[in-house]
Amino acid sequence: MEPFKVHILGCGSALPTLQHSASAQIIEMRGKCFMMDCGEGAQMQFRRTHVHFAKINAIFISHLHGDHCFGLLGLLSTLGMLGRTAKLKVYAPESYGDLFKRQIDFFMQGMEYEIEFVPVDTEKSQVVYEDHSVTVETVPLQHRVPCCGYIFREKPTLPHIRRDMIDYYEIPVSQINNIKNGADWTTKEGDVIPNARLVMPAATPRSYAYCSDTRFVPGLAEKVKGVTVLYHESTYTSENEDRAKLYYHSTARQAATIARNAGVGKLLLGHYSARYNNEEVLLNEAKEVFTESYLTQEGKVFSIE
User: Fold this and answer.
1) Residue numbers of the domain that contains 187
2) Are residues 142 and 230 in the same domain?
3) In this structure, are residues 188 and 197 in contact, taking their beta carbons and an 8 Å threshold?
């Protein structure tokens, strides 16, 4: 099974602290690396976590608050200085399009790689990226500005060949793809060997949902139903639920409620308020509702299994 990992570059909220960096993650899957949000200081987190700049295939921005996008222009500039030549697509709320173009024209003159802005409608669930092995779809969220989450999904793979059966029936290599695609095999004696005896089921496709800043939306559970791992912001504890509602954020308990109702495999907490010197209070609150809850932390890597 190919690696599917989430590298945490930053898990703090808007107010800078010495404890946490602003929101940024790298999703590594099927030989590709996607960046999710790019808060201020993301470049330094690349250095600290030893994730190489050149690995980025595309960048996704959830919304246009500074702690999620102020690091973007600096990162794009650094990629140019490092000699990037491959085209890079930046997916972000469509309202950023005109300003983004002006910033690129002003700051990125002479760069030798192409940057394409892809406008995202944050009010729709839709696939915005697709290749032969991966899809990325949007999930509308409710924040003070247009905002969406993203679900990264593996596409189903073909079943695995049973080498022992291939050898036993002396099936030529030229027929393996046909068998993977469901064909039976007929022996020289005319016996039909059903496909089910020649293959083993493919691994279940894995998925990762990134739900950025949002107030508690009960219906969100249906949108992320059954994902392998869910990241959901958990800015506050329930003691500050009124504050969370006022600023369109969520508590750890609310994040855990979404995870439980969606039947996900694991919940990752993040976007911690600067008021907490120890996020264990957030973790403990979440675990009361959903046992498989975990704290994100800069430099930590989570495998999607």
Assistant:
1) 160-200
2) yes
3) no
DSSP element (H, E) containing 297? none
pLDDT at 253 over 80: yes
Q: Which residues of 29-54 are buried (b: 16+ CB within 10 A; e: fewer)?
A: bbeebbbbbbbbbbbebbeeeebebe
CATH number at residue 291: 3.60.15.10
Question: Quick one: 149 and 268 in the same domain?
Answer: yes
Model confidence pLDDT, tens digit, residues 257-288: 999 999 999 999 999 999 999 999 999 999 99
pTM: 0.92
Could you tell me how many residues make up the chain? 305
> Quick check: 85 and 117 in contact, CB under 8 A?
no
3-state secondary structure of 130: strand
121 and 241 part of one domain: yes
> Does 211 lie in the same domain as 236?
yes
Q: Active-site residue 67, yes or no?
A: yes
Binding residues for Zn(2+): 63, 65, 67-68, 143, 213, 271
236 and 196 part of one domain:
no
Give me the sign of the Cα torsion angle 115, 63, 74, 52. Answer: negative
Give the pLDDT confidence of 285-304 residue by residue, as tens digits.
999 999 999 999 999 999 99
Q: Given 37, 67, 121, 167, which residue is catalytic?
A: 67
Same domain flag for 43 and 140:
yes
State the Cα angle at 75 between 74 and 78, rounded to 5°. 90
